[in-house]
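Ticket #230: bound-state structure for adenosine-5-diphosphoribose.
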Amino acid sequence: MILTGAGVSAESGLGTFRDVDGLWSEYDLEDVATPQGYARNPKLVLDFYNARRANLLSATPNKAHQALARLASQHDVTLITQNIDDLHERGGSDDVIHMHGSLVESLCTSCSDVRDWREEMTSDSTCPQCKTVGSIRPNVVWFGEMPYHMERIEQVLPDATLFVSIGTSGAVYPAAGYVAACKQFGIPTLELNLEPSDNAFLFDEGRYGPATDIVTRWVDEMILAKIGNA
Ligand code: APR
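RESOLUTION: The complex was predicted; output attached.
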């Protein structure tokens, strides 16, 4: 079971949230990542995500995304991400569990239609399903909203043989709680991050450095071990 955060996409040029120059140092998350902020000023929120979507569409997956896709060809991997980018998919992973939603999907607040959406989103955007004007928002889970796929994640967790957390600060629940849950099930835990996260002390092992380096090395080790045991 692998959990990724913004750090896995940092070397693709996408901002993280809590690093020194992170998104939450530029924007107040209350204004751009809460239902209340959206109700107060939908244009500010839509423009915030339009800018991130444009940045994403010009970004490319990095070696860490590609390594995780390679890993899944040799091991049974459940890939859960807090990220709303589609770089895991563009790096070759499929069935990625996006617990915080997706920057390249729309959600209609009238009919709940969710679909691929890669263009600008404005207050005049019309739902292709119910034709309501102005009901389209990013299909992104905001603070105070329920993350997606929680049941599926809770089903998978107890059967994991290894839990690996990659590129996340361990600051936001429920994702930040998975390492403790895995420990209760006696599942070995590994953290791969630029630097020790807030809950680094909970992991059995930690390897620190840029994801394109440490994730790639770890995946190569895992694949060699698998071949060695074949
Ligand atoms: N390689 C590996 N790790 C990196 C790199 C890198 N090149 N650059 C940064 N990191 C690490 C940082 O050290 C940090 O621990 O990635 C982590 C990013 O942490 P956050 O910015 O807090 O991002 P994340 O953990 O994904 O945030 C979780 O919070 O704001 C919400 O919904 C948002 O999904 C997000 C959630």
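RESOLUTION NOTES: Residues 2-229 form a domain with the Rossmann fold fold (CATH 3.40.50.1220).
TICKET STATUS: resolved
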